[in-house]
Design a protein that fits this description.
Blueprint lengths: L1 E6 L5 E5 L4 H11 L6 E5 L5 H12 L3 E5 L4 E5 L7 E2 L1 H4 L9 H8 L1 E4 L13 H9 L3 E4 L4 E4 L7 E3 L5 H12 L4 E5 L5 H12 L3 E3 L5 E5 L8 E3 L4 H14 L2 E5 L7 H9 L2 E5 L2 E5 L8 E3 L11 H9 L3 E6 L8 H8 L4 E4 L2 E6 L7 E3 L3 H13 L3 E5 L1 H5 L5 H6 L4 E6 L3
Parallel strand pairs: 2-15, 3-14, 6-7, 10-11, 18-19, 22-23
Antiparallel strand pairs: 1-23, 1-24, 3-5, 4-5, 7-9, 8-9, 11-13, 12-13, 15-17, 16-17, 19-21, 20-21
The structure holds uridine-diphosphate-N-acetylglucosamine (UD1) and phosphoenolpyruvate.
């Protein structure tokens, strides 16, 4: 069992190195399996538990994978895939397992999905994925525990997503990339990670237009080839470090090429946090007290639901009442109870939370219920009096690489411990 121990009170200062994006690298590993020849090289790979699970899953279906941790590089040879089964014991541990389906369908004619994991955030349906595969000509058999998707060749079609699902868009693009003819995906996701995956697929030989418009057209091609691609920076990791500077009264230079925090930056600016772009570096600092804020989560370019939890911690440390409206997931407020154990005053009413700040936070034993509530508790610990112990640290490790070491280098008193329990 992994546990984080944080002793609060230190301002974070220095240069924070932002990792590659979890939500870009996972679909890219799925995309690499579409190449029937050659070796794919992925650079700027975040060394997180989800990537380790994705490597195990790629190996389980027959790919040869090298994860060079210190070089943050993955080399994937998918020329021989041998199994269409996504085994429960790996697939249930991360959401990204769903992104292996298109490659198995194209390469082996079927995908047998024994389970899909990911953060526990309420209902997380996959109906858009399955409806899309069906419209492309696949047979989908949704059993109690196992889902069997079968196709002897897919054919382009017009697809529509009820809401712009992130992995749904990526999966349907990958399924369409090697289908016969043209596919149009309406109401597609606009997230930068989706565009990065489109860039990689385009280098591989896919013919995709309309990325970032909500209407994506894919002209199917005969084959895709292995390429080298550098994973974009993780805007969620960057957002967390910006917030860490804000709540500790610190000053950080965020290094990660082309970093754009979008609406998160504007919201933090409204709270009193100062940002300055210095070429490729984003400088962030906060001197005065934080002002309260209103947040409404939405798909890109709206406020990312994955930063809603860390922002709840920031709001708890602001002077006044903040309002948060969570519109993507129906179970993403488990953090409130944990923050309240530390002395916060957060009231949840359905999809809305009222955060009454600022109350002093006191370190105690708390539990991460998912990746982002985990990192939000680390932030709370950095600003709390005394020591905070955060259990289920594995969930934090799913999405943040070398977190304790990176924060310690900036002055934080944080350790990652392995306990018996
Ligand atoms: C690995 C990865 O990239 N994970 C991200 C991805 O998850 P993921 O791709 O799973 O999230 P989606 O965008 O698909 O889901 C958003 C909402 O749509 C609903 N929905 C989705 C698909 C579907 O077929 N039917 C359906 O009803 C879900 O229940 C949820 O309420 O986007 C989320 C929303 O930005 C992020 O929090 C996750 O970090
Ligand atoms: C919800 C998240 O991830 P996943 O979709 O991988 O569970 C997240 O990154 O906050």
């Amino acid at each position: 069992m992994v546990r984080y121990r944080v002793r609060g009170g230190n301002a974070l200062r220095g240069t924070a190195f932002i990792q590659g994006a979890k939500n870009a690298v996972l679909p890219m590993i799925g995309a690499a399996l579409l190449a029937a020849r050659g070796r794919t090289v992925l650079r700027n790979v975040p060394i997180i538990e989800d990537v380790r699970r994705a490597v195990e899953l790629a190996e389980a279906v027959g790919a040869y994978v090298e994860l060079h941790e210190s070089e943050r590089t993955l080399v994937i040879d998918a020329s021989r895939l041998t199994s269409a089964v996504l085994p429960a014991e790996i697939a249930r541990r991360f959401r990204g397992s769903v992104l292996f389906t298109p490659a198995l369908l194209h390469r082996l004619g079927e995908a047998i999905i024994e389970g899909i994991g990911g953060c526990n955030l309420g209902s997380r349906n996959l109906d858009f994925h399955y409806l899309g595969y069906k419209r492309l000509g696949a047979l989908v058999d949704e059993g109690e525990t196992v889902i069997h998707v079968k196709a002897s060749g897919l054919t382009g079609a017009t697809l529509y997503l009820d809401t712009p699902s992130h992995t749904g868009t990526e999966n349907l693009i990958m399924a369409a990339a090697l289908a016969k003819g043209t596919t149009v995906i309406e109401n597609a996701a606009l997230e930068p990670e989706v565009l990065d995956v489109i860039d990689m697929l385009t280098k591989m030989g896919a013919r995709i237009s309309g990325g970032g418009t909500g209407f994506i057209t894919v002209e199917g091609v005969e084959e895709l080839h292995a390429v080298e691609h550098t994973v974009m920076p993780d805007r969620l990791d960057a957002g967390v470090f910006a917030m860490a500077a804000a709540i500790t009264g610190g000053e950080l230079s965020l290094v990660g090429t082309g970093l754009d925090l979008g609406v998160v930056r504007y919201k933090l600016e409204q709270m009193g946090v100062e940002f300055a772009r210095q070429g490729a570096v984003l400088h962030v600092r906060c001197e005065g007290p934080l002002r309260p804020i209103n947040i409404i989560t939405d798909t890109y370019p709206g406020f990312a639901t994955d930063l809603q939890s860390p922002m709840m911690t920031v709001a708890a440390l602001a002077d006044g009442t903040s309002y948060i409206h969570e519109r993507i997931f129906d179970g993403r407020f488990a953090l409130a109870g944990e923050l309240n154990k530390m002395g916060a005053n957060v009231e949840v009413e359905g999809s809305r939370a009222i955060v009454r700040g600022r109350t002093p936070l006191i370190g105690t034993q708390v539990t991460a219920h998912d990746l982002r509530s985990g990192i939000a508790l680390v932030l709370a610990g950095l600003a709390a009096e005394g020591e905070t112990h955060i259990d289920s640290g594995y969930l934090i490790d799913r999405g943040h690489a070398h977190l304790a070491a990176r924060m310690r280098a900036l002055g934080a008193d944080i350790t990652r411990e392995i306990s018996e329990r």
